[in-house]
Amino acid sequence: MVDEGYAMSEVAVRTPLGRPADPDETAATIERLLLGATDVTGTCLPVDGT
């Protein structure tokens, strides 16, 4: 069994936000890319809270 409190504290330590990305934040990024983000080219765009 996974200790979720420990797992979340590990996420907090390793991400600049100090928390996992919220689903709405992830959706907003995807929406921007789908609706014509022509200024974003040739890049890896992590959408995971890091």
TrEMBL record:
Top-rank taxon, per record: Bacteria
Name of the protein in question: Uncharacterized protein
Organism: Pseudonocardia xishanensis
